Backbone:
């Protein structure tokens, strides 16, 4: 390590938002060439803000940045390019109606005539050199998430970036795609590029990084060499105290265990007539967490929405078992039923979309009002009751450790993880019999994720049928009793969470595993 | 039956203000600014040209002594400066202060129409004329001058060569705008600003500058539409409110052409033709108003069809009407 070449030296970086929220305080950071640096920290610990200052999106309030030993001022993304810094944001910075090539050359000065054909040729050369698969003439809106990410990486390489920042690059990738990405990153590292990766997934940190730097509440707390540390040590430093890293999977003892939701031969087509769910059948039991795995867009959203009554169904049936004792069984058909009535039966849906605010919460309303979105129909008085929602909001803030100045704060002002806690907390407070939760820990840090897992387990213990749609296979395997794997709208199999392996599920997600499909 | 040879020149004359307005607005909207102030800007463009040439004509002892170059340059420059100021005002409010674009635009339309009528009224008072209008016939003659041999070429001359220079400039500007938008680096960057400003920003494009330049340029082009209307179409006669709803028609044209200036060159003639169809089809006064509705009906039909097709390229710029602030959280 003696011959490490310093690429970036950040000293005393401080950044405040709106004069109140301190995002970064006096952070020192060194970045070396030929090294993958992992930046760790809980939600709202200022990782992204710090990197945004390096890539020119934000400007630091104080502090200095040196690149290759020379002090520089990075006032705009353009300045960052000129110093060879390129960042791949969590939300891709691509124009949807442009082709890959148009996106890649966007903003470049270039000499002489504007020549897309020549640019496409150079793009192909870069792709050949690193083993990417990009069609320069494909429109971005036609691309899958991993293709878009590839375009982002090629864009940086095209611009000659040698300091690359990736903000949660694996959040939307399958395990196979992640492996491919990491192989490329290692190639680039061996090529002498400096790579910074922000991620919450500790096993990925172990897998790809050489060094780990930890931020907590906007401050630098320490660093370690990946090879010499464990995920437990990383988590402890990140959270600031001892945390258990095992997800519980309690075996629920119940007097009787019954079927709660029976889905039979469910087929759903979207507005354009594309089949989103094809002949899906499964049963969800009380006191059980049923995991749903699949590449994003395989029909998870449609499945949950069909059960909640939000999605028109083409054929099949969804039965809700109200009560079953002995031979007698009382069953209600959910298809065609009013969503409000379904919700009143105790079937609640908490869907966390990519932008987090898209479903279920109103950004400009405060916590209390958002709680009221569930309860405003209650009671007969023409006036709404604000007391109960306020108590609920206070309870959620308290139990889930939501970091907010008060329950009167607009949800939009909270950091992403805290927004999610509010959403999930509200749904669980509805005392459901069926909890449909999608991407509940999307983008959440380790500590908050474990709080959510705990909550789900508690619901399971109460005899709730929990359906958990998740992206992280490791979590699905540890948390769920059974895992249903979707592939292109079809069920490619239902496996036991206790006995299956990550590889098996990963293959079933891409249909290579065979199964029923 | 329709007399094509006399119908087409009138449709074209009618189309030129619409084409200027829509080209200007397309350039503006490609930067993500929805400028509903275009009708007002066209009004201001018109009246500023009128003020300029009015003062110039008054300074001459005899209007027939008019210097051809000055007689054209003065109104054109006044018109451009007036519309530029409107553009700067709009940009300052919506880009720098991030005010709501719809409200700002509508306010500017109200302001522009009022501004035009106020100064129009004042000038009419100054002339002391009996009729409520100003006639700038000397200037108008300069603007309306067609190629001398046009009239000797029969129907060809009448259909293609019978217009003043501003009409040809309108079509040239529309095709040039299309070329720049589709085939140049600047065009690509401008479209990126309107589609996804944070992406454009991350790519090192100066969002504020693009929005300002595109909007001001768009306003100046639209302003020429107002000038053409007064000096050429209306024979240099300004009377209050005569410009009518042409500004709104230009906005409708933007949607009709799905943000393509070169399509607008053809579509504006269609709109112009529909606008004056009632003159050529014998009808009563009630039906006449129905005919005048046709361009809007066509626009609604196009809106329905284009949203049915739901092709991504046929949608408005994605961030149209939204302010951009880099550190927005």
Residues:
């Amino acid at each position: 390590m003696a011959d490490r070449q310093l690429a970036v030296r950040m000293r005393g970086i401080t950044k405040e938002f709106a004069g109140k929220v301190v995002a970064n305080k006096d952070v020192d950071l060194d970045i070396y060439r030929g090294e993958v640096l992992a930046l760790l920290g809980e939600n709202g610990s200022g990782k992204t803000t710090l990197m945004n200052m390096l890539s020119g999106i934000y400007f630091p309030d104080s502090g200095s940045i040196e690149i290759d030993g020379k002090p520089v001022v990075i006032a705009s993304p353009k300045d960052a390019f000129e110093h060879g810094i390129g960042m791949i944001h969590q939300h891709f910075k691509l124009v949807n109606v442009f082709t890959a090539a148009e996106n890649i050359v966007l903003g470049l000065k270039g000499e002489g005539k504007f020549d897309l054909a020549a640019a496409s040729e150079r793009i192909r050369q870069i792709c050949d050199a690193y083993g990417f698969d990009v069609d320069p003439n494909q429109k971005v809106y036609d691309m899958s998430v991993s293709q878009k990410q590839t375009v982002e990486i090629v864009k940086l390489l095209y611009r000659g970036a040698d300091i690359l920042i990736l903000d949660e690059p694996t959040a939307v990738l399958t395990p196979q795609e992640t492996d491919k990405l990491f192989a490329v990153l290692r190639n680039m590292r061996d090529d002498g590029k400096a790579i910074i990766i922000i991620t919450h997934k500790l096993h990925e940190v172990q897998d790809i990084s050489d060094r780990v730097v930890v931020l907590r509440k906007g401050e630098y707390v320490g660093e370690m060499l990946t090879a010499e540390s464990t995920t437990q040590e990383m988590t402890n430093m990140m959270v600031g105290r001892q945390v258990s890293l095992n997800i519980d999977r309690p075996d629920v003892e119940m007097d009787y265990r019954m079927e709660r939701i029976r889905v039979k031969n469910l087929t759903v087509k979207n507005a354009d007539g594309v089949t989103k769910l094809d002949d899906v059948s499964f049963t969800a039991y009380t006191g059980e967490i049923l995991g749903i795995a699949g590449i994003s867009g395989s029909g998870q959203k449609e499945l949950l929405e069909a059960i909640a009554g939000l999605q028109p169904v083409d054929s099949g049936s969804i039965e809700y078992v109200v009560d079953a004792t002995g031979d007698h069984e009382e069953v209600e058909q959910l298809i065609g039923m009013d969503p409000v009535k379904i919700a009143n039966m105790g079937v609640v849906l908490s869907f966390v979309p990519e932008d987090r605010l898209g479903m279920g919460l109103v950004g400009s309303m405060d916590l209390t009002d958002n709680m009221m979105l569930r309860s405003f129909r209650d009671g007969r008085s023409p006036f709404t009751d604000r007391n109960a929602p306020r108590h609920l909001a206070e309870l959620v803030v308290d139990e889930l450790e939501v970091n907010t100045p008060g329950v009167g704060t607009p949800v939009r002002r909270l950091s992403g993880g805290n927004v999610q806690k509010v959403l999930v907390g509200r749904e669980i407070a509805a005392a459901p019999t069926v909890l449909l939760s999608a991407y509940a820990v999307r983008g959440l840090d380790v500590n908050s994720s474990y709080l959510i897992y705990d909550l789900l387990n508690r619901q399971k213990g109460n005899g709730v049928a929990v359906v958990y749609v998740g992206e992280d296979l490791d979590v699905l395997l540890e948390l769920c009793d059974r895992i249903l794997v979707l592939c292109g709208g079809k069920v490619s199999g239902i496996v036991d969470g206790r006995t299956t392996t990550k590889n098996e599920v990963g293959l079933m997600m891409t249909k290579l595993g065979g199964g029923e499909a | 039956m329709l007399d094509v040879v006399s119908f087409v020149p009138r449709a074209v004359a009618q189309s030129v203000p619409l084409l200027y307005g829509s080209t200007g607005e397309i350039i503006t909207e490609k930067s993500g600014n929805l400028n509903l102030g275009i009708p007002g800007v066209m009004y201001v463009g018109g009246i500023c040209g009128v003020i300029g040439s009015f003062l110039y004509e008054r300074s001459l002892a005899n209007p027939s002594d008019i210097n051809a170059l000055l007689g054209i340059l003065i109104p054109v420059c006044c018109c451009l400066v007036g519309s530029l100021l409107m553009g700067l005002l709009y940009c300052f409010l919506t880009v720098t202060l991030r005010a709501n674009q719809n409200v700002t635009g509508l306010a500017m339309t109200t302001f522009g129409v009022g501004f035009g009528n106020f100064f129009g009224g004042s000038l009419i008072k100054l002339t002391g004329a009996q009729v409520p209008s100003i006639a700038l016939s000397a200037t108008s003659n300069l603007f309306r001058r067609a190629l001398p041999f046009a009239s000797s070429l029969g129907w060809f001359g009448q259909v293609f060569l019978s217009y003043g220079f501003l009409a040809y400039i309108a079509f040239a500007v529309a095709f040039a705008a299309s070329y720049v938008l589709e085939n140049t680096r600047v065009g690509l960057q401008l479209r990126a600003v309107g589609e996804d400003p944070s992406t454009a920003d991350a790519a090192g494009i100066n969002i504020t500058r693009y929005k300002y330049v595109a909007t001001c340029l768009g306003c100046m082009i639209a302003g020429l539409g107002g000038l053409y209307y007064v000096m050429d179409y209306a024979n240099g006669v300004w009377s209050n409110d005569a410009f009518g709803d042409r500004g709104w028609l230009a906005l409708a044209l933007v949607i009709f052409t799905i943000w393509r200036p070169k399509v607008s060159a053809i579509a504006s003639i269609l709109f112009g033709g529909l606008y004056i169809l009632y003159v050529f089809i014998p009808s009563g006064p009630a039906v006449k108003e129905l005919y005048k509705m046709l361009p809007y009906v066509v626009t609604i039909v196009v809106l329905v069809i284009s949203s049915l097709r739901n092709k991504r390229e046929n949608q408005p710029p994605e961030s149209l009407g939204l302010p951009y602030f880099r550190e927005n959280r």
User: Anything to note?
Assistant: Chain B has a mean pLDDT of 89.
